[in-house]
Every structure is written in structure tokens, then in C-alpha cells.
Write a sequence for this structure.
């Protein structure tokens, strides 16, 4: 390994480790590290700052910002809060049905909008319901844990659900329809296996009393709390229609036409914001997620600098030279990807691992590599509470709710409460990812 490769790699990995240990300073750490990376890269004559900035995938950032603004429109229409209320009514506040209804609901919603935004609107309703039911620690840990994993799987199910999939779409590695064709059913299989395992083997509802009166009272209280909340149809319907139009355009418009996914997103979201111009202007001024944009910008700069040194190509060459059959090398890559994501989180892992995946995609069908990688990243982000983007948010909101069981003991949801859920979820999703890669790689490239 050359000196530029070693120094730039140390800066990248070091900053990722530090930001994982001190998440409250993650934006500052990554931003400063990106500036140092530009300086070091310039001094070693690897790449200048303008060159590094010119290779940032701005189209990915455009899609990320656009979908975030569209999520804010749906939030303002009060759609998510009412969906969670409808889930409560449909489940009749039965503890087992609550796990199923809310998990499936969050899987669907997270495939279309930012899962953090969805959690912010759905979780308060669920936490109130937990208080009314008077359940124990075991049930709360598995309910919230499975909900978090369902969000991760939903995000991986579509090319617009989460950053790793958006990165694949923005860079043109896979078309919208092709990714959706392979990822949606595979993530759904993983979710069904997880839910069946939890409900039939783990059985988080074991030991809970089936109190029909308590469930009826819980539903009645929830209806009372949300009796004055009305859906803003004049905002929700146009926003959903424009989202549907964007989905259709992403599927049918070929990228060779020059009408790229980011352009479709730009125009679609712009029209949605224009529909309620005053609100649209306000959202543009106050609700753009600059934190995520700056974090990813710094990350792309650091990864781009390391790529300029040729380190990723060297790693891919080392992988291909291992005494393993080609499919064994692919499976090893997927397993390492899942573990790496568990340590560094999905965004940084996907940005770096994608460079190696591009080399593997020349040996295998691209969908076997890219969808397999997206699933492995999803497995890793479901491994530890700190690996999921929405994990710390879920922990904070649960702590603020002050949940207690029937004996007055505090109910928690932290690293160790999530760990059993994470271990099971990682094993299931990673196994599905490897199984998918084995089947898909048997096809000719």
C-alpha cells in the first residue's frame, strides 16, 4: 500500500470510527475530515479539491433532498398519524396484531418516504398505545426492534426508500424497474421470515393477559385523542398523485433519453411544492435536510479521494485472487459488507463498498451484486441499534415517553434491548441476501 493510500484510508476509517463513537458531533467530524482529505490529496498530487468536488454524485443528493421535501408535504397533510391510528383500529389493540400491522405498515411507508420522517409521526401513536396496554419489557423490546428492522427492509425494497438504494439509482448501476423487480420480493420474503420467526418462536406476547376490555378501552382512547385530526385531502391527494407520476416516469423513461432519475425527482417535487406555493416556499427555507446533505458530501469527498489512489481497485484484485471459487468470493464480499455496515452504518459502508462491487459486477450479473449488496447493507444496519440511521431517534423518543409496566418499572429501548432482535434480523436478512446472490449469480452476466 502506497503512502497516499495509507494516509487517506486512515483518515476515512478514523473519521467513521470517531463519528460512530461520538454521534452528536458526526457532522462536524466528517466535515473537518473531508477538508483534511482535500488538503492531503492535493499535497500528494492525487487529486485537487475541484476534481474531488466534480466527482461528487450530486444527482444522488438532489434525489435525497427532493424525497425529503415530498415526505414533509405528506407529514403536513397528517397522513402518517392517521395511518397509525387506522392500524390501531384494525388491530383492535391486540398485542400480536399490533406487531404485524405496524411492521407491515412501516415496511410499505419506508419504501416510499424517509423512514425517519415516518417514525416521527407513527411512533408517538404507538408509544401512547403501549402505555394504555400496560405491556412488559420483553414485548416492548421486540415490538420496537421489529418495527425498526421493518423500516430498514422497506427502505431497501425500492430505489427511493433509503440512501444505499438511492445511490444505486442515482449512479445508474441499476434501473428503477430492475431494482424494484429483484429487491421488493426479496425484502418482503425476509420480512415474512422475520415476522413468522418472532411470532411463532420468540412469541413476545407470551405471558401477556388477553384483556379484551383493556384493548377496547385503548382503541376508544386513541379515537378520542385523534377525533379532531383530519386528513388534508387537498394536499395529500396531489402529493400522492405526483409521487405516483414520478414512480411511473422512473420505470418507463429510459435513462438514455437524458431524462435522468434526479431530473424526474426535481420536476415532480417542484410541482408538488408549487401546488401549495406558500407551504412549499416555507419547506424549502426551513425543512431541507442540510445535515444529511453535508454529511454525505463530506463522505463522498473522502471516498472519492481514496478511490483516486486506486485502493478500491486493489482491494477488488485482492478479493479476486483469494483461493475461492468466484461465487465464494462474492458471498465473502456480501458477508463482510454486512459486518462492516453494522460497525460503520449504512451510508458510509455503501459509498465505499460500491467501488468494489463495480468490479465484481463485471464477473456476475449486476443485479446479483448490487441487490445482494443492498440487502447485506440492510442486514448490517439491522445488526446494532447504532448502525441504523433511525435507531438513536427511536431510542430517544422511547426514553422521553417514560414508559412503565404494570408494576411501575421503567421500560427501556437501548443497545442491549435491541441486540437480540438485531442478531436474529442480521442472520435472516444476510441469509436471504446470500441466497439471492447464489441464485442470481448462477445466471449468465
Amino acid at each position: 500500500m502506497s503512502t497516499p493510500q495509507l494516509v487517506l484510508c486512515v483518515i476515512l476509517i478514523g473519521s467513521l470510527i470517531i463519528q460512530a463513537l461520538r454521534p452528536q458531533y458526526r457532522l462536524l467530524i466528517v466535515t473537518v475530515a473531508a477538508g483534511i482529505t482535500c488538503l492531503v490529496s492535493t499535497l500528494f498530487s492525487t487529486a485537487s479539491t475541484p476534481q474531488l468536488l466534480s466527482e461528487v454524485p450530486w444527482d444522488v443528493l438532489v434525489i435525497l433532498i427532493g424525497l425529503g421535501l415530498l415526505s414533509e408535504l405528506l407529514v403536513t397533510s397528517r397522513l402518517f398519524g392517521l395511518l397509525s391510528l387506522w392500524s390501531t383500529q384494525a388491530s383492535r389493540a391486540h398485542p400480536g396484531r399490533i406487531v404485524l400491522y405496524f411492521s407491515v405498515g412501516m415496511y410499505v411507508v419506508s419504501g416510499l418516504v424517509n423512514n425517519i420522517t415516518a417514525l416521527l409521526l407513527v411512533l408517538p401513536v404507538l408509544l401512547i398505545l403501549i402505555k394504555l396496554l400496560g405491556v412488559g419489557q420483553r414485548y416492548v423490546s421486540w415490538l420496537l426492534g421489529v418495527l425498526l428492522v421493518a423500516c430498514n427492509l422497506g427502505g431497501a425494497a425500492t430505489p427511493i426508500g433509503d440512501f444505499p438504494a438511492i445511490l444505486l439509482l442515482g449512479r445508474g448501476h441499476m434501473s428503477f424497474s430492475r431494482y424494484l423487480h429483484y429487491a421488493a420480493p426479496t425484502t418482503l420474503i425476509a420480512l415474512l421470515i422475520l415476522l413468522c420467526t418472532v411470532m411463532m418462536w420468540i412469541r413476545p406476547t407470551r405471558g401477556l393477559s388477553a384483556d379484551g376490555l383493556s384493548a377496547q378501552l385503548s382503541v376508544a382512547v386513541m379515537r378520542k385523542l385523534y377525533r379532531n385530526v383530519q386528513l388534508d385531502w387537498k394536499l395529500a391527494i396531489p402529493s400522492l398523485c405526483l409521487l405516483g407520476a414520478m414512480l411511473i416516469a422512473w420505470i418507463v423513461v429510459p435513462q438514455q433519453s437524458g431524462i435522468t432519475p434526479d431530473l424526474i425527482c426535481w420536476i415532480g417535487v417542484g410541482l408538488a411544492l408549487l401546488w401549495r406555493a406558500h407551504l412549499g416556499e416555507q419547506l424549502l427555507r426551513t425543512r431541507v435536510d442540510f445535515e444529511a446533505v453535508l454529511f454525505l458530501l463530506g463522505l463522498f469527498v473522502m471516498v472519492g479521494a481514496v478511490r483516486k489512489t486506486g485502493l478500491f481497485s486493489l482491494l477488488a484484485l485482492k478479493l479476486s485472487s483469494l483461493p475461492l471459487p468466484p461465487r465464494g468470493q462474492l458471498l465473502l464480499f456480501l458477508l463482510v459488507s454486512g459486518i462492516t455496515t453494522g460497525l460503520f452504518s449504512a451510508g458510509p459502508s455503501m459509498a465505499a463498498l460500491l467501488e468494489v462491487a463495480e468490479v465484481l459486477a463485471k464477473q456476475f450479473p449486476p443485479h446479483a451484486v448490487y441487490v445482494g449488496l443492498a440487502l447485506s447493507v440492510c442486514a448490517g444496519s439491522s445488526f446494532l441499534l447504532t448502525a441504523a440511521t433511525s435507531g438513536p431517534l427511536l431510542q430517544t423518543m422511547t426514553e422521553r415517553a417514560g414508559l412503565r409496566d404494570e408494576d411501575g418499572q421503567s421500560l427501556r429501548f437501548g443497545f442491549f434491548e435491541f441486540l437480540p432482535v438485531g442478531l436474529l434480523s442480521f442472520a435472516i436478512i444476510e441469509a436471504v441476501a446470500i441466497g439471492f446472490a447464489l441464485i442470481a449469480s448462477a445466471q449468465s452476466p
Notes: The chain has 21 helices and no strands. The chain has a mean pLDDT of 84.
